[in-house]
Automatic annotation (TrEMBL):
This is Geranylgeranyl transferase type-2 subunit alpha. Belongs to the protein prenyltransferase subunit alpha family. It holds the Pfam family LRR_1. The keyword Transferase applies. It catalyses: geranylgeranyl diphosphate + L-cysteinyl-[protein] = S-geranylgeranyl-L-cysteinyl-[protein] + diphosphate. InterPro entries: Leu-rich_rpt, Leu-rich_rpt_typical-subtyp, LRR_dom_sf, Prenyl_trans_a, RabGGT_asu_insert-dom_sf, RabGGT_asu_insert-domain. Gene3D superfamilies: Protein prenylyltransferase, Rab geranylgeranyltransferase alpha-subunit, insert domain, Ribonuclease Inhibitor. Residues 246-346 form the Rab geranylgeranyltransferase alpha subunit insert-domain domain. The gene is RABGGTA.
Amino acid sequence: MHGRLKVKTSEEQAEAKRLEREQKLKLYQSATRAVFQKRQAGELDESVLELTSQILGANPDFATLWNCRREVLQQLEAQKSPEELATLVKAELGFLESCLRVNPKSYGTWHHRCWLLGRLPEPNWARELELCARFLEVDERNFHCWDYRRFVAAQAAVPPAEELAFTDSLITRNFSNYSSWHYRSCLLPQLHPQPDSGPRGRLPEDVLLKELELVQNAFFTDPNDQSAWFYHRWLLGRADPQDALHCLHVSRDEACLTVSFSRPLLVGSRTETLLLMVDESPLIVEWRTPDGRHQPSHIWLCDLPTTFLNDQLPQHTFRVIWTAGNAQKECVIFKDCQEGWCRDSATDEQLFRCELSLEKSTVLQSELKSCKELQELEPENKWCLLTIILLMRALDPLLYEKETLQYFETLKAVDPMRAAYLDDLRSKFLLENSVLRMEYAEVRVLHLAHKDLTVLCHLEQLLLVTHLDLSHNHLRALPPALAALRCLEVLQASDNVIESLDGVTNLPRLQELSLSNNCLQQPAALQPLASCPRLLHLNLQGNPLCQAVGILEHLAQLLPSVSSILT
């Protein structure tokens, strides 16, 4: 136990303790054997309750014995009178409480109490709430007790406002109470549901501002405690995006239709169905993901009959209806065009952050200023540094980009153990900013060179990109999600540390690929390139595999259509 001095014992005392433990072990094993023998013989009577009490009273985490007690109690329910049964249940509740005093974090004990209360015709839920309060006074972060309290509150239909007041009392007593903060994040959306916002919906403006003030008081009181910082991060989070079809693309050359969604979905499941209408007539098609895996994806595509695209009609109209999402999108391909698309105009609020009211923006600006002041007093507080970055992202990611990068460098120096995570988070933010700039410029070329990227994300936003420059970064692989770039013609990925090309598959328009100065070791690593039918130019200079014997012959056999290979 914490805070207790270790008392030295003599050899005689140590021997006496050993003998005592051996005696207890014999009794424990004897009682356990007796329980199993009775259970096997079907003798589920009150003697089993007595035997299991001896064992569970010392070790409440013997799950099989709790199962035995439940079997006995179920038998006795049919044999006992209501008065006898009430006495038995009262004794069982008392026994459970004694077990919890032995181990307040016993999974089996809390579960057995839930089971027992669930079988009573009129449970005393008020008593159970008092029990929870007593145990949380002893350990306010006992998540087993918090789980049980949520169960009791749900069964007793306790108003969320009362439970929120309970968390207020515990947080006021001690800000370092992660469980209370977490419970608030569950209760507030119940108290203030917002239409069409999903389970992670935003809070009303006035409630959100009060919560920001509360949590700011907490982390200014104890800057090194992470509980309030995590809750603050939840408050800054955005709601689930509304179901929508972001982009619809039709290619005449590939005879293919591709659609991107606001969230991953599994088409073909019971809940996710897509309907395709061509010139207002339904067309039955088979949907698949770009990488061929039948799993949830932002991008789905289908093959189109060539008869729809090779006739002499002036135009064709394609409309995809997402029934579960109650959304649809339509695009037109004209006679002399090889492709057609329709894409939502994206803004940073829609893609990567929440739209801010003037009042909330003012509050966040004030918080940013306060956090910067706190950081001057606590220059090595990692939670403060990360929150500054998140606040700048929430306010204006493009305006604060340079300053954000500086804070990332400071944070990596303060928290070197999480440098890889911070590099990935930095890469995510930089890619988001690049996508926004590309959207504002309405171009199909994306330059991401010399940004020290370690990971690629949001690739579903790049469906229409034709040229992508990833050179001079720290990428170790090209991910399978790269298959979402159905229009990609030129990919530059030189001067990285790429070891795998698993993501360079099924890119129907890829013509030029530059992979010089990477870490490709074996010729077999190039196998995914065989699925790119239009690949013409390949640069592999500076890769270890270029030293392999017969590499040119292997490449000629693997990629017969490639006209230019540099090794």
